[in-house]
């Protein structure tokens, strides 16, 4: 049995954020963690989805690959890493809906002392990656997580990502993350898993 359990809860529409989630999972598993990847579900109507070509088809494909995240997943995990595309410089409504469903665990204090991290993607170079990542720190703090930033604790951060979490820019073409982006994501997975392991061993609450 793994020493530490990591939940990666993300929303992805075109697969860019999904690719970052996969790299974070690789890093966490390299640190010996058991990982669950979960995709948040759409909260808009089919009519709205139809306005963006390929959205419904991509959602169906990804939902076949991943279960939806649940409160039970968060309780199971020693660490939660959340990922989202930016939506007007902030978290997507799909992922926020999942976070808002964790109130039952919050009131019981069941998320206190777990490690938390964030990652995101955006379509444009200055499309709000850092503001989105920082906005995701707020619910982590309220829920009792110990926030684990990437910092500049690995050489990969001098080429890509942010000190707050892994990120990617798709240049309005759903371009996949670069090799440098994925290196940051793998480092983030390793770091969050290592910190979660240490917190668990120390009995931090």
From TrEMBL:
<dbReference type="Pfam" id="PF03358">
    <property type="entry name" value="FMN_red"/>
</dbReference>
<dbReference type="InterPro" id="IPR029039">
    <property type="entry name" value="Flavoprotein-like_sf"/>
</dbReference>
<dbReference type="GO" id="GO:0003955">
    <property type="term" value="F:NAD(P)H dehydrogenase (quinone) activity"/>
</dbReference>
<dbReference type="InterPro" id="IPR008254">
    <property type="entry name" value="Flavodoxin/NO_synth"/>
</dbReference>
<keyword id="KW-0288">FMN</keyword>
<keyword id="KW-0560">Oxidoreductase</keyword>
<dbReference type="InterPro" id="IPR010089">
    <property type="entry name" value="Flavoprotein_WrbA-like"/>
</dbReference>
<protein>
    <submittedName>
        <fullName>NAD(P)H:quinone oxidoreductase</fullName>
        <ecNumber>1.6.5.2</ecNumber>
    </submittedName>
</protein>
<dbReference type="InterPro" id="IPR005025">
    <property type="entry name" value="FMN_Rdtase-like_dom"/>
</dbReference>
<feature type="domain" description="Flavodoxin-like">
    <location>
        <begin position="6"/>
        <end position="192"/>
    </location>
</feature>
<keyword id="KW-0285">Flavoprotein</keyword>
<comment type="similarity">
    <text>Belongs to the WrbA family.</text>
</comment>
């Amino acid at each position: 049995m793994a020493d530490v359990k990591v939940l990666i809860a993300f929303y992805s529409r075109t697969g860019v954020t999904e690719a970052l989630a996969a790299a974070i999972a690789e890093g966490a598993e390299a640190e010996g963690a058991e990982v669950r990847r979960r995709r948040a579900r759409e909260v808009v109507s089919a009519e709205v989805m139809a306005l963006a070509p390929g959205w419904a088809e991509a959602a169906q494909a990804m939902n076949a690959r991943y279960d939806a995240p649940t409160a039970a997943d968060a309780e199971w995990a020693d660490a939660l890493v959340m990922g989202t595309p930016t939506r007007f410089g902030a978290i997507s409504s799909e992922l926020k809906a999942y976070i808002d469903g964790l109130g039952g665990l919050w009131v019981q204090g069941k998320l206190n002392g777990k490690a938390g991290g964030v990652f995101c993607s955006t379509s444009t170079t200055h499309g709000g990656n850092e503001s989105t990542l920082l906005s995701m720190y707020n619910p982590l703090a309220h829920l009792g997580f110990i926030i684990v930033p990437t910092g500049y604790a690995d050489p990969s951060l001098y080429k890509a990502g942010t000190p707050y979490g892994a990120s990617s820019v798709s240049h309005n073409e759903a371009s996949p993350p670069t090799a440098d982006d994925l290196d940051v994501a793998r480092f983030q997975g390793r770091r969050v898993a290592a910190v979660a392991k240490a917190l668990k061993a120390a009995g931090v609450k």
